[in-house]
From TrEMBL, chain A:
Source organism: Citrus sinensis (Sweet orange)
Name of the protein in question: Coiled-coil domain-containing protein 115
From TrEMBL, chain B:
GO cellular component, one term: proton-transporting V-type ATPase, V1 domain
Keyword set includes ATP-binding: no
InterPro entries: ATPase_V1-cplx_f_g_su, ATPase_V1-cplx_fsu_euk, ATPase_V1_fsu_sf
Highest taxon of source: Eukaryota
GO MF term (any one): proton-transporting ATPase activity, rotational mechanism
Family the entry assigns: Belongs to the V-ATPase F subunit family.
Keywords: Hydrogen ion transport, Ion transport, Transport
Protein name, UniProt field: V-type proton ATPase subunit F
Coiled coil: none
Length: 226, 155
């Protein structure tokens, strides 16, 4: 009699724990779903801002200077990449975890120095063609001054090599596809799209969590119905 | 532990992009030959990809293959499908960004992708805002919820 009551009690506890686990999975799933939708909304706003800044830059610099034909089709590695690691969900399952590595210089030092070398002749070429038009205008003198400052910074960076300056170098290299002197709006667009990338990586992580929780909830529902 | 699915880890993986944008308005301030209009159309079409390339995502390998595809009016469904299959089979790509408008054109292929890597993220484009109802993952969730509510009604 006592044993029967004990068994009944254990069974009830077991069912209660199962329900708790199911509720946990469901809550985690709903949380990740909510986060996913919120981040997508934030992404839409960031992208809209980026598009607007790109359009402003095109208006300021001219459509011929922000042109698809200028895109760099030379062999080059991505300066911004992802690190994919494994994250344990439980003993039977793991999910990928994405980490954004922004403007991470290549591990292959040879390659990165090669890219820098190929950049400088282009800069000199663009210098000669653009400076003659720029100096004549008083408004553009500030652009010339900013360019002079960035050259000085580059000299400092080769001496000190601090990460922040390397990041700025990578940014400048990415912008240099559209010329040496670019509109501040293009720089703002670059920052907006960098923010969008960060949001996208967060979305990717929530996406995998959501899918993982969805599978768990689905399994639990099937077990309940079965 | 032996039955755990293997997750492909990577120290440095790429982000691939399949983006579209059709020029919503091509301003014709003066009469130009077709080539100029085509260039202008391309400028309008490249905004999303150009933006992400500015953020340093662009990669061109030794075979001159890029990690992005611009979808314009001349791109066929087959080309989009081939690019999607290529990006999802490459070992060095961890995330594929695809405009939701383009994803709708190859919806069957996008929905049938069920691997964790690469993660397929549907993003809005300039002319087509994001619609949660069309998202691959969210529509799967919606189907499950609607099936369960029907099943519980029957019980």
């Amino acid at each position: 009699m006592m044993e029967d009551q004990e068994e009944k009690g254990n069974a009830e506890n077991g069912i209660g724990r199962q329900k708790q686990v199911k509720d946990e999975y469901l809550l985690q799933f709903l949380d990740s779903l909510d986060g996913y939708l919120t981040l997508l909304d934030s992404l839409s706003s960031t992208l809209s801002q980026g598009w607007l800044e790109l359009a402003s830059a095109r208006h300021a610099m001219g459509a011929s200077r922000i042109n698809g034909a200028l895109l760099d089709l030379k062999v080059h590695a991505a300066a911004t990449s992802l690190k994919v690691s494994e994250q344990d969900v439980d003993s039977m399952e793991s999910q990928p975890c994405f980490t954004l590595c922004k403007w991470a210089s290549s591990d292959n030092g040879e390659r990165s120095s090669g890219e820098e070398k190929s950049l400088s002749p282009q800069l000199r070429h663009r210098n000669n063609s653009q400076l003659s038009g720029i100096i004549s205008s008083p408004v553009s003198f500030s652009h010339f001054f900013n360019f002079f400052l960035s050259c000085e910074e580059e000299k400092v960076s080769t001496r000190t090599g601090t990460p922040l300056i390397l990041v700025d170098q990578q940014r400048q290299k990415s912008l240099s596809v559209f010329g040496v002197l670019v509109s501040p709006k293009l720089r703002s667009a670059q920052l907006s799209f960098e923010r969008a990338l960060e949001t996208l990586v967060e979305i990717a992580n929530l996406h995998t969590t959501m899918l993982s929780m969805f599978e768990q909830v689905h399994k639990e529902l099937e077990n309940t119905n079965g | 532990m032996a039955n755990r699915p293997q997750i492909r880890t990577a120290a440095s993986a790429l982000i691939a992009m399949i983006a579209d944008e059709y020029a919503s308005s091509v301003s014709r301030t003066m009469q130009q030959p077709y080539m100029f209009d085509h260039l202008l159309m391309q400028v309008h079409c490249w905004d999303t990809v150009v933006g992400f390339l500015l953020a340093g995502v662009g990669n061109v390998d030794l075979r001159r293959k890029t990690n992005y595809l611009i979808v314009d009016s001349k791109t066929t469904i087959k080309q989009i499908e081939d690019a999607f299959k290529e990006f999802t089979s490459r070992e060095d790509i961890a995330i594929v960004l695809i405009s939701q408008y383009v994803a709708n054109r190859i919806r069957f292929l996008v929905d049938s992708h069920n691997k964790p890597i690469p993660a397929i993220l549907e993003i809005p484009s300039k002319d087509h805002p994001y619609d949660p109802a069309q998202d691959s993952v969210l529509s799967r969730v919606k189907n499950l919820v609607s099936v369960e509510s029907v099943a519980s009604d029957r019980r």
